[in-house]
Amino acid sequence: MAVHILTAGPQGDGSSVTPNGWFVTPAGRQIDLADATWWADRPYGEALSPDGHTLLISSAGQSTESIKVVDTASGTVRQTIAYTAPEAINVGVVWSPRGDRAFASAGGNNKVRTYGFDGSRLTESGSIAVPNYPMGLAIASDGLTLYAAENRGDALAVIDLATASVESVAVGACDEQGSPVQYPPSAPQCQPYGVTLSADGSTAYVSNWGEHSVTPISTRTRTALAKIQVGTHPNALATNPKLARHQVVVANGDSDTLSVIDTASNTVVQTINLAPYPNAPEGSNPNALAMAPDGNTLYVANAGNNDVDVVRFTGPRPVVGMLPTAWYPTAVDVSPDGQTLYVANAKGLGAGPNPEYVQGAFGPPNQYVGSMMHGTLQIVRVPSGDQLDKYSAQVIKNNGFDERDQVRENGSGGGVIPRRVGEPSPIKHVIYVVKENRTYDQLFGNLGKGNGDASLNLFGDESAPNTRTLARRFVLLDNFYASAEVSADGWSWSTEANANLYNQKSWPQNYSGRNRPYDFEGGNYATASNKNPKDAYLWDRLAGAGVSFRNYGFWTVFGSVPPGVAAEPTAPNLATRTDPNYPGYNLSWADSPASPLAKPARITEWQREFASYQANPSTFPTVELVRLPNDHTAGTFPGAPVPRAYVADNDYALGLLVDTVSHSQFWKDTAIFVTEDDAQDGPDHVDGHRTEALVISPYTQRGQVDSTFYSTVAMLRTMELIVGIGPLTQFDAAATPMLNSFTGRPNLLPYTAQLPNQPMNQLNGANAPMASVMGNIVSLGADQTPEQLLNQAIWKSVQGPDSPMPGPTDNGGGDPVGD
Known about the structure:
Blueprint (H helix, E strand, L loop, with lengths): L8 E2 L5 E2 L5 E2 L4 E4 L10 E6 L5 E6 L5 E7 L5 E7 L9 E3 L5 E5 L5 E7 L4 E8 L4 E6 L5 E6 L4 E6 L4 E6 L21 E6 L5 E6 L4 E6 L9 E2 L4 E6 L7 E6 L4 E6 L4 E7 L12 E6 L5 E6 L4 E6 L6 E6 L2 E8 L5 E9 L27 E6 L3 H14 L30 E7 L4 H5 L20 H9 L1 E3 L2 E2 L5 H10 L4 H11 L26 H8 L3 E4 L49 H14 L7 E5 L15 H20 L7 E7 L16 E4 L7 E3 L3 E2 H12 L6 H4 L37 H7 L9 H13 L20
Parallel strand pairs: 32-36, 32-37, 33-39, 34-40, 35-36
Antiparallel strand pairs: 1-2, 2-3, 4-31, 5-6, 6-7, 7-8, 9-10, 10-11, 11-12, 13-14, 14-15, 15-16, 17-18, 18-19, 19-20, 21-22, 22-23, 23-24, 25-26, 26-27, 27-28, 29-30, 30-31, 37-38
């Protein structure tokens, strides 16, 4: 299937292409949930009024969060109530039985918001303090009691709405899946997500997102009963309205299954497999449920597959069809007559270009890839028969599932890249280098070839001579996209070929300062995108297959500074395979020996171990994982290197790595893959996800431009095929390997590193552009910096203090925070 003409983002005809190359063709009416001032930044929750006339949609994204009031007949947004950080809204939203009141969880604000409703608009009437991060909500049929899942407290809050009194009921002991690793150890965390009531109201069922259980809690005695074991990372719940059915259903986000619970016995009586094809790896990510009024049909929003599954509880096969949605569906409701579906899509039609990057210290986020995507509402008539079959076929085609069990071919590659796992390759060693946050245009916009915009190029031959020379000499990849938006999900995509629901619904709260921890790089097993969280990552599969590997800086505790504090890995299979003397993410440490930052430089430590492999060639591992983070820069933080100096430090380290390998006996059968974890830190004229990627090997094409549509997961798929392991998820399974970048005729000419002309000891002074602001917020030892402010500081440092960044074209709000 030829994909080289594609570019990511909205296609102008109501369809889109995700950064992974999946097509998005939403059925029915597609409504941009924007009004004159605010768009919907990641709508994650919705609630349909009892009369079916009004839909409430809660958006819990990285910028301005909101609750929107939508008229279901016209699809128009009647009202937006906006919340600028640190004020928050979250996934939980529910109506009172009479439809005259509504309630919304406020997550990190530790409260539930209360509203009155006059038939047209909401009026916020106050709030009820609820400890420990309330998320999912449910309300009793008499409207007197509200239930809230305490996500950070491992409890269910039982709220008396007459008195506003709150009682917390513990959900029970939690297993190690929820244990933080990266941060100071604490007790395991269940991370309650959703709550629903049995049809008779006698029992509340709480999904424990951090593990694989549902806790039933008696609403009469307010005590927890024995946990019910379900699939991995359960989230949304739905109750069958037919009392005789005794059914509660839970979506298992990383097992790609549904568990049907018999509420009479509190046992799982059926497990429904949502995998899109037989033996499919994980990646469907079910996360929202809507039960039809007749109790016979369930609608399941699969965020990963961009579809809604139609599930029937009777018949030979439960999943009878699929409806195509926009990107990342996260909420679904069905009308009271059972004929219409309302689907909220968190990422809508994607990003598109972001060249007019933000002006102003905390400017509108319409050009920041972490917040610029407009969430959408999809209104579609419930299909049946031929129409449902057509929709299902469209989903299969959109996601490439019609080519399952095949390697997507886009060229021969000279036979270098195997087509099947286990086939031989002349490449015996892979070095995987991941850097931080740059876009394609920032590095290659004025390269002189490829699809670049010279006006957006910030780092030229003076500060990135090696990166740019390697792109010219080997192959220039001008249609390569980061699968992620930011580093929190970028390090998951880069290492496990997915960023699961916990990651996607949590990082925006952390980045925006809404009281959520950064626990995404080994900090929590809840981020593992696999039914077995201990078998989710690239290193887990390598270890399981007996493939040797060595880790330099991936997933180590932030701030650890060898030799005083050894680099401590945060994943079990990295424990004995990590160089303890190699610093992970820490901007006070040098990438290269030419930098004035702390020594020994990362590349110097890498070279020390590489020399030992040269002395003992049989010990050189098949795979190396190398983190070079300093192209992140610290903006204009006083006393830190200027942005171009940081980039030069990073660039020289990359050049030295390629120099060292290419002058060694290993060069003849080694491939070096280089990319960024994300592209959040700058502008691009094609799409906000487009980023730097390099493939460096004797078997790489020389002097060519490869415009094939590639992405993070395509790079992973290519490396997996070389070293002989299968795909991690549905995303790398469906990705196009980088065949066109390779040739069967090796060129063994070595590479000699270039010392950048940019002085690496050029430091930001106290009067550097925006230095006073940056000095108050930037940490050199943690990946937590307001990205839009950082980007403006980088721009002014490079282009001059009086050079304004291009102004935005839309309005927005909020204080975006990145890493």
